């Protein structure tokens, strides 16, 4: 392979995990790297994601890990083959940050914080010669030159290769606003519409239920939902009732399927198992057990621990006649139907789906319509649940784009 030209210059646009990883690969490859970001500092979404504990990746087996990318598992697989969950941990350790595996299998820095990891990473990038240009919003091209809006007016610069890592369209206040979509479409790059992922959903709760239970967590619950394959799948976890719907990790894990159902049918139904630790036969036995003068609500609390928001959900989702029918009530405790009306707005979502279509990219992550320009991270059309899967694929895609750009620079 020919050597990289000694004066090669590459622009990385976007200072999130994918862009920073691309910049690291490029700087280690011996090229001059200029990283641009519209915000005053890099990694803002990365830092916010770490507020509750920096979940960096997941320790589950590679086969199960890969399935987390759903319909895009095959396309994401080459990224992960080059930089998998163990590689993420090794890379973090190389920054001087130790990690541990939590009880859920999620991997965290030992101090649970994002800021020390980001500081160590940025120090290494600066030591490697990466130049950072903050408050530079990409405006597209003027011929071969990149255009940027800066505090000092419009600025143009030309490069030998460009890596775009501009994020999706969630949390716009942190820089991911999807403003890049028309810029690429003008260059005939196919882009799938950006839609919310890892998001909450609207439910038309009654005012009575909403006023009493908004903010209430369901910590021991399971959800059955229809998957993309048409079959019913059950997951256990936790989520939260909101004033107008539901949100939380269990809901986020199902968001892709639920969003697609709503798009196809106008709504989606989930079935709640309010007592996942009890079998259906045991629930029926306890519900139909003689209760004497006690009310059914008191009986359910005594025998099955149903109280508070769970009791409220039964009253909200069942008619008075259904609640009085012990057989129907026992069934509902294991399969309570709840109808979701809409996904919450994309700017409230943890991440987004859609973006640059995979068929718009070659095997090196380069845009077929714009040679020398590469795409990485959440602006590409894939999605994953929370749990470290999002970050891992962002890192891995940034690395793949960086390697792709190096290969481009060495072309004969």
UniProtKB/TrEMBL annotation:
Its cofactor is FAD. It comes from the Bacteria. Residues 9-402 form the RsdA/BaiN/AoA(So)-like Rossmann fold-like domain. Keywords: FAD, Flavoprotein. It comes from Massilia violaceinigra. Residues 195-351 form the RsdA/BaiN/AoA(So)-like insert domain. InterPro entries: BaiN-like, BaiN-like_dom_sf, FAD/NAD-bd_sf, Flavoprotein_PP4765, RsdA/BaiN/AoA(So)-like_dom, RsdA/BaiN/AoA(So)_Rossmann. The keyword Nucleotidyltransferase does not apply. PANTHER family: BLR3961 PROTEIN (PTHR42887:SF1), OS12G0638800 PROTEIN (PTHR42887). This is TIGR03862 family flavoprotein.
């Amino acid at each position: 392979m020919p050597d990289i030209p000694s004066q090669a210059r590459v622009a990385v646009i976007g200072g999130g995990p994918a862009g920073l990883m691309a910049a690291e690969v490029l700087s280690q490859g011996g090229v001059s790297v200029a990283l641009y970001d519209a915000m005053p500092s890099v990694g803002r979404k990365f830092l916010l994601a770490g507020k509750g504990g920096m979940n960096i990746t997941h320790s589950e087996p590679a086969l199960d890990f890969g399935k987390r990318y759903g319909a895009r598992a095959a396309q994401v697989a080459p990224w992960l083959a080059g930089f998998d969950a163990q590689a993420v941990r090794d890379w973090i350790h190389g920054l001087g940050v130790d990690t541990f595996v939590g009880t859920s299998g999620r991997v965290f820095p030992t101090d649970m914080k994002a800021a020390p990891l980001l500081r160590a990473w940025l120090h290494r990038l600066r030591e490697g010669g990466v130049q950072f240009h903050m408050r530079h919003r990409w405006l597209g091209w003027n011929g071969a030159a990149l255009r940027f809006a800066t505090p000092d007016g419009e600025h143009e610069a030309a490069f030998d290769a460009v890596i775009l890592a501009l994020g999706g369209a969630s949390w716009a206040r942190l820089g991911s606003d999807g403003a890049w979509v028309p810029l690429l479409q003008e260059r005939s790059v196919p882009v799938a519409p950006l839609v919310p992922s890892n998001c909450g959903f609207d439910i038309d709760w009654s005012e009575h239920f909403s006023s009493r239970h908004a903010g209430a967590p369901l910590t021991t619950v399971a959800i059955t939902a229809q998957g993309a394959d048409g079959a019913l799948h059950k997951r256990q976890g936790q989520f939260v009732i909101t004033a107008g719907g539901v949100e939380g990790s269990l809901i986020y894990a199902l968001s892709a399927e639920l969003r697609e159902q709503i798009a196809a049918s106008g709504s989606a139904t989930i079935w709640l198992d309010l007592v996942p630790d009890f079998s259906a036969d045991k629930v029926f036995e306890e519900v139909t057990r003689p209760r004497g003068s006690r009310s059914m609500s008191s009986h359910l609390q005594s025998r099955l621990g149903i109280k508070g928001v769970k009791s409220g959900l039964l009253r909200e989702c069942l008619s008075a006649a259904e609640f009085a029918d012990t057989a129907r009530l026992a069934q509902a405790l294991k399969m309570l139907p709840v109808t979701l009306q809409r996904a919450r707005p994309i700017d409230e979502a943890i991440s987004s789906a859609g973006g640059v279509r995979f068929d718009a990219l070659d095997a090196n992550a380069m845009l077929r319509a714009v040679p020398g320009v590469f795409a990485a991270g959440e602006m590409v059309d894939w999605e994953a649940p929370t749990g470290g899967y999002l970050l891992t694929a962002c890192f891995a895609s940034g690395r793949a784009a960086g390697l792709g750009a190096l290969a481009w620079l060495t072309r004969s």
